[in-house]
Amino acid sequence: MTTTIIVPLITSNAYAQQSHSLVANTYNIPADGTTSIPFTIPSGVPTAYLSGTVLITGGILSTVDFSIVNTDTGAKVMSQGYSGQGNIGLYLPAGSYTIYLHNGSILAGETHTVTLTPNLNY
Description:
Elements lengths: L18 E3 L3 E5 L4 E8 L6 E10 L5 E8 L4 E9 L1 E8 L2 E8 L9 E10 L1
Antiparallel strand pairs: 1-9, 2-9, 3-8, 4-7, 4-9, 5-6, 5-8
């Protein structure tokens, strides 16, 4: 008597999620100044998760206006004011984007230092 063992072939079509660090950096933004940080989520990625932290020091109030614009469409996909520190957490589809950091202070010499540590998971 012969015994036959049938082992089903299992294939996985799961997309392996990877973490991609964007440029983590410290930016000195003068009064009424803006800094822009472009990044891209490659085509073929259904959805990416942008996360990270924002730390603001300097000046009287240590605040910054943080926004993300889809540069393919011109649409603002996030707009947030941060005071002192904050967190980023946002799902984004494939495309080209720019993070804008704006120091809304109007006092001359009111430089804010922003440490941004963004991370993309897809």
